[in-house]
Structures are given as structure tokens and as C-alpha cells.
Amino acid sequence: GKQPELFKPLEIKGVTFKNRIFVSPMCQYSSSNGHATDWHFVHIGGFATRGVGAVCMEATSVVPEGRISPEDAGLWQDSQMAPLKRIVEFSHAQGTKIGIQLCHAGRKASTYAPWIKEKTGHGTSWVAQEDENGWPNNVYAPSAIPWSEKYPNPKEMTEQDMQYVEDAFVAAVNRCKEIGFDFIEFHAAHGYLMHEFVSPISNTRTDQYGGSSLENRLRFPTRVLQRMREEWKDKPLFVRISASDWAEGPEKSEDGTWLQWGIEQSILWVQKMLSLGVVDLVDCSSGGNWFKQKIGPLIDGKIAPGYQVQFSEAMKKAHPSVIVGAVGMISDPVVAESYLKDGKADVVSLARELLRNPHWVLMAAKTLGCEVKAANQYDRAWR
Ligand code: FNR
């Protein structure tokens, strides 16, 4: 039969992804002082043997204090390269492309890993304290506005702080080059540092990096992307955005004031990225920057399947030339195929569905009536 869209190869800057099903980045809270461990080798290696087009490794911080939790991944020092290299080489031996998401958690840093919190006596606070390997006194953000009362109180970043973070992103990119990653994803979503800069909810600066001016809010994240691109010229650079803050009310008031981050500004930002040549794929996620966010649409009180596809669809419509990823509650292969067929996205990223069903790609191929190659060792299971 005809090759389903999901299983058509995709070439980006000379890298050929064998299909369009990507593993979405997922924090594992299993690093040792920022170093990947055996857990990562097994977890990521498992995906690499099971037919996915690409694996994106979890949010990996470019400085120690940019980690979300003390157990998070890092790439701020050379010793963190070797365990990643082992994973990349295994993945390549399996014919699977692999990338990494570079991140800084901003005001959401120094918080507990989900299952560590349950063991602490700190009540409702999410702050990982100094005696718990946290750094609550070294949390910084565009503005001194905490994410919620349960989170650390961030300091407002100086221009010097910004330069230091920018340089750390560049250093991490150079380590990625040496490790051999196929692509890098710049994490500008989920209320972490770069999203904090672009959103008027979290950025109330009065200098050239913030406030009501969209241009000002985009300045720092865009500059970091430009610096990253200088070091990562011929390779795929992805950007994950949150296409909405999901705060109540509209994105823009009647007089044109931006009230929250949303799809309109996302489209403008991507336009800017495209004109500067600093993005090859826009990964359209949402939320994470407002503690009272109201995600929609809902079905029976639950977030609906494909709830973020509206954003990848709008992005593709605005910028037909850009490669767009859809993510979020994608589980049904027939529905996933329809997103691509209908031009709402070019790739799909799956997170939880692949945790529940690591063989999803092989199952999807069977459902859609095509063949896909996983590891030789698993071949007989799918004949
Ligand atoms: C995530 N998510 C996530 N997103 C991201 O950009 N960087 C990350 O490191 C993580 N970490 C993470 C850990 C775990 C355990 C989960 C379940 C999720 C979000 C994830 O990539 C994805 O966007 C959402 O989970 C929505 O997709 P699914 O799960 O509905 O397929």
C-alpha cells in the first residue's frame, strides 16, 4: 500500500529521520550531579531499538542552577559528555537519530523531583532546600516574580547574568557537537527561563529585554538562538515553544497591549527566527508559565487528545515553509496520521504514550499497514 505520512522519511539539514515519530523529551530525575546514568542508557536505548524516527533527550541544563531539580541532567562541564556519548553511539548503532533539549529552568529551578517531594517534611512547598542539594538562593529570572508561593523567589537577572547564561548555552552546544548529537532542541516552553522572557506574565522588566514590548521580550532568547546557530550551522536546530500561557482572558487587549503569551506572538517570534535562519523545526507545546493555567479543550473534564494540535496547525498555516511538530495526548496512530495528512504538523512527538507502550511505532505500522524496522533482535515479534 501507500506509505503512511508518519513513516515517510524527513530530511532536515542533511540529517535523515527515518520516520516522523519522535520521542518527546522527558525528565527522568535520575542524573548524578548532572551526569547521565545507567538509567538513561537503558531508558533511551530502549527507545532507540524500537523504530522511532528520533529520540530527544530530556531538558538538560547549561548551568548547575538552571536545573529544575537536583536530579536533573546537565551539560555544563566536560565530564558530563562521556555518559551521553555512550547513549548517542548506541542509538546510532541502532540507526536512530538522537538529539538533546538544552534548557535553563529560570524561576522554576531548585524544586523537588516528583517522587522526592513525597519523602520530605516540607508540606506544600516545592522548594528543594540547600540541605537537599537545592539552591533556592541562587534562582533568577527576567523579573523577581515567583511562579507561585510554593516556588523559590527569583532574583531579577542583570545583563551580566544574561551574558553568562548565553555563553553557557554556547558552551553546551559545542559539547553536543563533540558528543555527536544529530540535533539540538532549544527549550523555550513550559515556563522555564526562555519562556519567562517572552511572556508578559513573567517579564515585567523596564529595560530593553522586557515589558510590554514584544520586541524587547524576544531580544534575549533570540540572541541566544543566534549564538547557538553560529556554533551549530549545518545541523538541525529545533525550538520547543509554549504557544499559550493558558491564562484567563485574551492574548491581547483591545488597545493592543499583550496580556499573556499566545499563538499570535508565537507566530511573530517564529517569523523572526525564520528571517534570522535560527530554527529548523518548531515543536508546539503549551503552558507551564502560570500556576492557575486553564488548559483546554476538555472532554468530560479531561484534557482532550491532540489538545495542542491547534497550535501546530496555526503555525503551519502562518509559516508553510517551516517544519512543525505536534505534541500532547497523541495516542491513536490513525489520528496521528490524520494530523500529518491534513497538514496540521510534519512530525508527532509522543511522551506518555511511549512510556505506556514503548513498541508504539511497530504497533502503529501494523495498524497503518506498513513495515518498519526495529532491532533485529525484536524482528520475530512483528512478523
Ligand atoms: C515531560 N515533558 C517534558 N517536556 C519538555 O519539553 N522537556 C522535558 O524534559 C519534559 N519532561 C517530561 C517528563 C515526563 C515524565 C513527562 C510525562 C513529560 C512533557 C512532554 O515532553 C510532552 O510534551 C507532554 O507530556 C505531552 O505529551 P504526551 O505525554 O501527552 O504524549
TrEMBL record:
Source organism, top-level taxon: Eukaryota
GO molecular function, one term: NADP binding
A Pfam family assignment: Oxidored_FMN
Annotated ranges, domain NADH:flavin oxidoreductase/NADH oxidase N-terminal: 5-367
Xref: Gene3D superfamilies: Aldolase class I (3.20.20.70)
Keyword field: Flavoprotein, FMN, NADP, Oxidoreductase
InterPro entries: Aldolase_TIM, OxRdtase_FMN_N, YqjM-like
Cofactor(s) the protein requires to work: FMN
UniProt xrefs under SUPFAM superfamilies: FMN-linked oxidoreductases (SSF51395)
PANTHER family on file: NADPH DEHYDROGENASE C23G7.10C-RELATED
Protein name as catalogued: Putative NADPH dehydrogenase C23G7.10c
